[in-house]
Amino acid sequence: MAFHWYPGHMNKAKNQVQDRLKLVDVVIEIVDARLPLSSRNPMLDSITNNKKRVIILNKSDLADPKASTVWRDYFEEHGISAYIVDSKHANNMNNLINSIKKEVAQKVEKYQNAGVKNYKIKAMCIGIPNVGKSTILNRFAGKNIAVTGNKPGVTKNQNWIKTKYDVDIIDTPGILWPKIEDEKVGLKLALTGAIKDSVFHADDVALFAIDYFKKYYPEKLIKAYKVTEEDLELENPELLLLMTKKMGMRDDFDRMSEKIMMDVRKGTLGAYTLDQIDEAENAID
Ligand code: G4P
């Protein structure tokens, strides 16, 4: 299955990243703001070691705003500038680009002092599939461009994408899969739609969602699925069955599971974040 961590695939992606790394001034790592930890590729910390790096917490419109701030502060405390972005709705990337430019201002100045005129900043956007790399690149470029790095098997020449902000971005290399060492990470990725195929059963994903939302966002379950606060004290499978009945699906809990999964994925239940800051211990090398 595509999302398994094959050492061969990972080494290839790693080499491709490393090759291109030499050509850029800054690495823009894109994560899903709902999963600031689980949607990161853990390899990046070590391979981008000596490079300026910024993190974009994308899809912020779908994430819990308080949690996004906590995560942004967390990354900043670890020396990585982080930006909360909603690239689907925000057309204007001026502020973001200006901040990224500031990150490399010293380097640009060095070049300028050495006589290089009009030095153009070169960047690389990187992230696991579905975090919004293409969307962000399109915003930067101001037009629709195809990102080859999203497709397996495509020959990856070095494509430079010109942006309207005077920064060139190298096309994303290879596919950086998330590392799913822990089933919980897989369930989180499935719940947000980063994994769309059937690696996980909908009922397992729904039960995970019920468990998580009971703890962190109980009011969302109460509002969406006609259950009461007392109902939430039921064990998760019983609660799923009760929701199934209350939503008029008799005992078709498969259908209800699918609904819960899709509701969470699309944000119908409202904004949420699935990674908690206390899970972040040793998250950054
Ligand atoms: P990728 O290149 O990293 O694989 O991701 P891509 O840009 O293709 O984005 C994946 C999905 O996430 C797309 O939705 C895209 O519209 C959505 N997306 C990207 N950025 C944001 C954001 O900031 N907020 C929200 N809400 N969604 C975002 P899709 O379902 O594949 O397509 P569509 O619904 O846009 O047609």
Q: What is the secondary structure topology, with strand pairs?
A:
Elements: H1 7-21, E1 26-32, H2 43-47, E2 52-58, H3 65-77, E3 81-84, H4 94-103, H5 105-113, E4 121-126, H6 133-141, E5 160-162, E6 167-170, H7 183-192, H8 202-216, H9 218-225, H10 236-246, H11 253-266
Parallel strand pairs: 1-2, 1-4, 2-3, 4-6
Antiparallel strand pairs: 5-6
Bound molecules: guanosine-5',3'-tetraphosphate (G4P).
Guanosine-5',3'-tetraphosphate (G4P) binds next to α6.
Strand order of the largest sheet: 3-2-1-4-6-5
Question: CATH class of the largest domain, please?
Answer: Alpha Beta
Q: For the terminal residues, how far apart are their CA atoms?
A: 28 Å
Low-pLDDT segments, ≥5 res: 150-156
CATH level-four homologous superfamily name of the largest domain: P-loop containing nucleotide triphosphate hydrolases
String of helices and strands: HEHEHEHHEHEEHHHHH
- The number of helical elements comes to 11
In terms of structural class, how would the helical and strand content be classed?
Answer: alpha/beta
Largest sheet: 6 strands, mixed
Q: What percent of the residues sit in helical stretches (DSSP H or I)?
A: 40-55%
Second rung of CATH, namely the architecture of the largest domain: 3-Layer(aba) Sandwich
Our Rg estimate from Cα atoms comes to 21 Å
Strand fraction equals 5-15%
Large-scale geometry: elongated
In round numbers, the mean pLDDT is: 88
Number of strands: 6
